[in-house]
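User: Structure please.
Assistant: Input sequence and predicted structure:
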Amino acid sequence: MTRILIADDHPIFRDGLKRLLESEREFKVVGEACDGVDAVKLVRELNPEILLLDLAMPRRAGLEALREMGSEPLSARVILLTAAAEKDQIVEALQLGARGVVLKDSATQILLKSIRAVMNGEYWVGRESVSNLVQYLRSLVDSSSHDARKKKYGLTPRELEVISAVVAGYANKEIAQHFKISEDTVKHHLSNIFDKVGVSTRLELALFAVNQALPFKPIA
């Protein structure tokens, strides 16, 4: 039998899920956790094969609990349960060691299939199994980057050029010379950029630009 631990902060949901799983002869629920802290503790104590982990929980959210469990060797294979998940959350969860992500509004059979798939060494995301995780992650990251490129945060073409120069490591004087503008104008652009994207230093701006895949072009 597959030993399962349920971690969710809603007692009615946990009870219903337990009844559902134990209606299948191959599954046995060995414990229940009401928050992320209890989930980590019970995984260590009960050694389940599957942890059904709610993404949004008090005291320690699903990703935080997953990050803590990833710091030590544990037998549990984690399937995240979530009402909704952004692409970057799915990517982070899989990178942290989750074996599956299942939406809470999925049909019952989807959850059962996901547990069986994960126990067979596969990954499960949404409503389908994933055999090539690396390829899937790459497609998700590319898709997320594409979505981010649509967000320009109200930045003007000139401000995007200035960001490109900052990412390339140019100083204000060099940026002014490159774009044939004054240093005061560069400072004015940077001040506006900081306000628009919510950063306060050039390093933060460079990291933000790369992480958000802003549509800047490298300086020639």
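The domain at 2-141 is CATH 3.40.50.2300 (Rossmann fold).
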